[in-house]
Amino acid sequence: MKYSKLFGKTLKETPKDASLDSHKLLYQAGFIRESTAGRYYLLPLGLRVHQRMQTIIKEEMDRAGAQEMITPVLHPLPLWQETNRDKATGFGLLKITDRRDNAFVLGGTAEEMIIDVVRKFQISYKDLPFNVYQFSLKFRDELRARGGLLRLREFVMKDGYSFHVSEDDFKKEYQNMWDTYKRIYDRMELDTIVVAADNGDIGGDYAHEFQVITDAGEDTIFYVPSKDLYFNKEIAPTQAPSFDQTGEKKQPMQEVLGKGIIGVQALADYLHIPVEVTTKTILFETEKGEVIAAALRGEYDIDETKLKRIVGAQSLTLITPEKIKELTGAEVGYAGIINLPKSVRIVMDDSMKGRINFEMGANKTDHHNINVNFGTDLEEPEKFYDFKETKAGDLYPETGEKYEVFKGVEVGNIFQLGYHYSKKMEDAIFIDESGQEKPYYMGCYGIGLARTLATIVEVSHDERGIIWPESVAPYQVYLVSIRANDRADEVYKQLQDAGVAVLYDERDDVSPGAKFADADLIGIPVRLVVSPKTGEQVEWKNRAEKDSEIITFAEVLKRLKK
Amino acid sequence: MKYSKLFGKTLKETPKDASLDSHKLLYQAGFIRESTAGRYYLLPLGLRVHQRMQTIIKEEMDRAGAQEMITPVLHPLPLWQETNRDKATGFGLLKITDRRDNAFVLGGTAEEMIIDVVRKFQISYKDLPFNVYQFSLKFRDELRARGGLLRLREFVMKDGYSFHVSEDDFKKEYQNMWDTYKRIYDRMELDTIVVAADNGDIGGDYAHEFQVITDAGEDTIFYVPSKDLYFNKEIAPTQAPSFDQTGEKKQPMQEVLGKGIIGVQALADYLHIPVEVTTKTILFETEKGEVIAAALRGEYDIDETKLKRIVGAQSLTLITPEKIKELTGAEVGYAGIINLPKSVRIVMDDSMKGRINFEMGANKTDHHNINVNFGTDLEEPEKFYDFKETKAGDLYPETGEKYEVFKGVEVGNIFQLGYHYSKKMEDAIFIDESGQEKPYYMGCYGIGLARTLATIVEVSHDERGIIWPESVAPYQVYLVSIRANDRADEVYKQLQDAGVAVLYDERDDVSPGAKFADADLIGIPVRLVVSPKTGEQVEWKNRAEKDSEIITFAEVLKRLKK
């Protein structure tokens, strides 16, 4: 490809408001352009990288025994209604009705679609296990796009779905996909860590994310060094560092005024107590109408994902001020767990454990209790739970060691689904050896290609531009001619004849310096220069290295073919 | 791939109401399943064919100098409003609004999107010409789907767009794409004819369709043997065979009763005159409010595409019965062109020419005139036009020879767009050599992949199943083992090692006859059989031929590698 003919040239300017390096560099280097927020054009250079990534993923998925197919992206709405996912909010589902009044969802993931095609076949235990996958457009009506490709509203996802006779059989495939993902990211030269995560709107009991550590990430990851274990913040089990009250003696409980104080820190200041002895009590209602009072140490927030699992709820909503008044007798802001009606289920976080003389809302408008103690003022629960949002400084409960904390980008995920879908959808069954109909056991596996592409740029660039790994680079070689010369044209032709993918910068109205700057910005792994000075030889420079060398063309070919 | 592991097995049944061979065979052979009407799953076998077709198209487009990129499929509605195409009805545009109230169109074609990305760059004459293309999902809310892949509501299209400094430069690319399409279809072993066609909702002045002749087609094609020219019915110039009135003498015009007679044939019978002397007069209103009275020989229908061009209208609507009454003084059904108000523009089709003693509505309810003659009863127009729907039996005006008529499937098209878009959209310009801004001259080029796939099946099958051309077959070889045997496993492994794509039918609970039937149904070009009888050799049979032969494995490899 001659650079002068390439559609999508480099620019000095960065997009307005761009904050992410990948966004700036992919824009400047001519890989992407925004259509509307979260929807991007992939220009020829960008698409070439995307396609090479797709090829790597396909090769490894095929090698793992999975089979590629494809579903429509307009999913019939009734399918999503079968699993109740039409009401899931996390995806920001886009719905559309055609002129014959058929309603569709623009696919966010395709569990229902794949099950719908599988149930068109009468499958038996002999057909299991199998794993089918696709590269297809996914739509997420995200409230917020980030700029660049890290969080898109429309993107190609590799999504795979596996079907099994049993959990044991599934576990083998889960490991198989885990290993496959590792190979995929290794081939892309991406260091990934495998992080235990929540299943979210996908459903199922457990899941793992492949995360790349970078400050550009939106996920917070907690690491246990002694166990080499990673948790996504949303499910990291946590123990609050204990608050030292050595030497303190239990005091009698006392009701004090604290009118209009907002926030635990303000309350602690006002009452002249450490924030660690304040208490937050939050009242929720489950989808079944049960009221939950959840209490935890004041400086923590509630992790609703954890709390839902503990109380076995599908959803939790904060109860209304009217209902708070009815249950506690007080306005919002003064709830505590002493003297709540018996109908309220009380759960306490383990950050409550071991404290003495703590504060708590008095269930009386404008009033707080201080010097509250288990045993004397309220019963110590049989069991404390962990439903706090994990934060830096927290301990891993099992070993008591302090977590290390990173930011990461989730580039892929694998989910156990179990019977989550097959028990909800009709005919999601196979015939077992005894001729009985049984639901199948499932897993699913996703990789977002554009986000992974941007992540590669986040972790592989310098101040001059992108540094593409060879395996996904848009071209193998960036060939520069200094002063238009026949020798450069000849090298271009010879490289093409040898099957080398070359971007040939033959512009005659651009300085060598500008060409080198473009080469660095675009980030193709090898830069070759042919100039009057190089004679019959060629200058070779790796993008990631500083020095260049003059070598023979034969040596160039040898290195490129290695 | 082992057949027992393949997702998507063969079936004896055909889909309910399937009438097209491609629909039946692709379903039975396990290539496709319907999601909802017009939206299909491509199962692993189907997707493999689709991908091989995509590779052929990509290779030829790249060879022709075009560059692949990709646009989002949700197109911002304001872009379609710039060109007024949001109101085009032909596509059945689907529109959607996200939760931030941004409106989008689900892309039908991508002219506006491509121009929108091009105008983000300041391009000059030096950047021109270029041709960018994509493989992307297209959505058409068709009122009617046909079953199978011939007319889909969601499908992958290769759509390309070229940009030029001038019409002359464009013409070279038009020819380049014409030749490229020929190469693409040749590689797919599809015989195509190139048919002059209407630009329809795409816009522009001329276009050609690549059509495959088959009775499964929905298009009617008119062929001029002496000129080797093909026209789509919608734009075929036509001349009605003249009606022989030799010996007849002009008669005086006479008004006759003809109450409640519906249709020209009924009228002809009722009046005891040949249908060829009846006249249809239809009144339309243009988008500018001009009223057109179009008259033609009774047995013809009006081709609105032709008529629009003749009168220079964007749209034509039949005028209301009230307006007919106002203009003609009569109820609907009795309009003629004698004594119409001067404000009505009269156009006559050349089928009117040369007739004497013809019939025409009398502009009086329940009445017709017979024995109407030019000169005496109405003025003969200076010019007759051709705005009739071409039909079998018609003549090519230039040579007067009778058309040959076929049915065809349009598998691709190329369009001159000229300035159609660049004059409507802001900043659709380039900087010319003198530094002036100028609109660019455009063309566009489309291929629907799934329809082409189905067309291959329509023209390449027999009563036993599909016969895939080698270039797009899902596998090169269908290997059958007769009675499970190690030798077959070995041949499977050796073929794989040699890089041959093999579908291995190793099922041990299926008869040889059933395996052969599946091989024929699926239609892979070469069937190999390894049985106790073949010993160290292998039975080779081409799908398209009747006889098999026993050859050595070395010979198998030699033939496959040829």
Task: Characterise this structure.
The structure is a homodimer of 562-residue chains. Chain A is α+β, with helices and mostly antiparallel strands and 562 residues long. Chain A folds into three domains: 44-68 and 108-236 and 406-457, Bira Bifunctional Protein, Domain 2 (BirA Bifunctional Protein, domain 2, 2-Layer Sandwich); 254-372, YbaK/aminoacyl-tRNA synthetase-associated domain (YbaK protein, Alpha-Beta Complex), CATH 3.90.960; 475-561, Anticodon-binding domain (Rossmann fold, 3-Layer(aba) Sandwich). In chain A, the strands form eight sheets. Chain A has a five-stranded mixed β-barrel. In chain A, a hairpin with a 4-residue loop joins β14 (279-286) and β15. The longest helix of chain A has 21 residues, at 167-187. The first copy, chain A, is globular.
